[in-house]
Each structure stands twice: as structure tokens, then as C-alpha cells.
Amino acid sequence: MKLRSVTAAYFSPTGNARRIVTAVAETVSGKTGVPFRTIDFTLPRERRAVHRFEAGDLLVIGTPVYAGRIPNKILPAIQTLFEGNGALAVPVMTFGNRSFDNGLIEMRNELEQHGFHTIAGAAFVSEHVMSDKLAGGRPDAEDFQAICRFALDIAAKIDALQEGPNDGMAVIPAPVSVKGEDPIPGYYRPLQADGTPANFLKAKPKTTDACTDCGLCAKACPMGSISREDFRTVTGVCIKCQACVKICPVQAKYFDDPVMLSHIRMLEEHYARQIENEVFL
After folding, report:
1. What pLDDT does 173 receive?
2. 18 near 122, Cβ under 8 Å?
3. I need a labelling partner for 8 at 20 to 30 A (CA). Which of 78, 93, 119, 128 fits?
4. What's the rounded Cα separation, in Å, for the pair 108 and 142?
5. Do 161 and 171 contact (CB within 8 A), yes or no?
6. To which H or E segment does residue 21 belong?
7. Backbone dihedral region of 257: left (phi > 0), alpha (psi from -120 to 50 degrees) or beta?
8. Is residue 64 a contact partner of residue 17, using CB atoms and an 8 Å limit?
């Protein structure tokens, strides 16, 4: 089996998963000398077409971890948009300094169930979308060095597969062993600062009078939930991804739900420490 293409696919509302997944895939592409492309399935209109792969293709795919798993509103896209047909795959998850819990093993399992052969996996730390006190500034230069080393190890592993026996055909690898529970348990349950459960599912962004009606928030919303007629109105589900908050050029978007803010204080109190990336080969 000869590698013929590398694809980076990502759900990335605030850009960190995009940066990390793309860096991995581009490095593998550069090392192996095969074509590279991207699939950005962050926005609703990009979650319609099915992407089919074949033996000889490599898919590097990632999302942020939400509540310890693949974001539940994006899981159906992972399950329906990507067909492996014997292609290789590398699941990559990003997490905001608490834990990636079962996000990585869940992504690995989904890829294996849909025709991919997973040969590596990784969980990389990135700044938490709700607080720059949690992994602020990450991924940083040191993180990207680790990302590059991981990608080069993937390329080396593919080379070893290509040198397998049986008339030049590569040996099909066993699913990469990654950290996590299998079967996958429920989602992480957030807590408030006082240790009680934090339920802020209904929290939605507010808008100050500084809003200039530029519409960037509506264009960036991965759920398509911000009204195109009134950018102050959230008409659908909000996944708290902070895309609208981060993209607003005048900082007019914000969350003020007290339970959500209490959860953020809990995270800042208990998880504002240096944590390492984890790679699996």
C-alpha cells in the first residue's frame, strides 16, 4: 500500500483544532511528498457532502473535546460524513487543560467503525475557549515542536507499513491503543465552584450596545443559530463554543449565565496548571 494523499479534516469553531490538525497533516504530506487537502466541517453547510477515502489515503481528523467527548452535536457528522474503505486515519483531539477524558478513544472507535485503520492518535492542549487562564497561549512554539515530532513519527510508521511483506501489500495495523474507557461512558458533568452540578445548557450569548451589526457572529456560528436578521437573537441551540465571542471585532458578545460563570471559576481554581500533550503510536 503506497500513500497517495493526506487530508486534514476538522471541526474548529475558534481555530485551535484547525491549526493543530492542519500542522500534523501538512507535516506528514511534506515528509512523504504526497498531495494535501483540507476539509473544514465547522459550519452547517459543510456538513452535507460525504467524503469517501480509499486504501492509500490518510485522514487526520480532529475536534475539540466538549464535556470529555466528541461534541454531541457534531458526533452525527463524524458518523455519516467520512467513509474509510480501508484508508488510514489519525484521530486528534484538542482540550482546554482539564482532560480529554474519552474524546480520543471515541473518535478512534468511530473511525474504525466506518472503514478506517487508525495508526496513531493524539490529544493536544489548547487554550480553553472560556478562559485564557486555562492553557493561555497554547498551542505555543513548544507544542508545535511536539506536533511536528508526532507527524514525523506517523510518516515513519506509514513507511514501515509500506515495507511490509505479502507482495508489497502493507500489513493492516490493529487499532491504535489510546487512553480512555471502552465502552464509552456518559459525558463529563460540569461542576460549579461550590462542587454542585452545573447545568447551563440553556445559556446563550448576550450582545452589548457596542454591536455594529457586522454579522460576523452569525457567519461563524457552527450551529447556524444566530439570526441573520437580528444578530442579537439566538434562534437555535448554543453549544457554548465561543465562536461568536472570539470573532466579534468590538467584543460585543458575552455570556452572563451565573451557573456557567461559576463552572468557569471552578475550572480556573482546579485546572490552571501546566499539563502535557499525549500522543499514541
Report:
1. 80
2. no
3. 128
4. 26
5. yes
6. helix 16-32
7. beta
8. yes
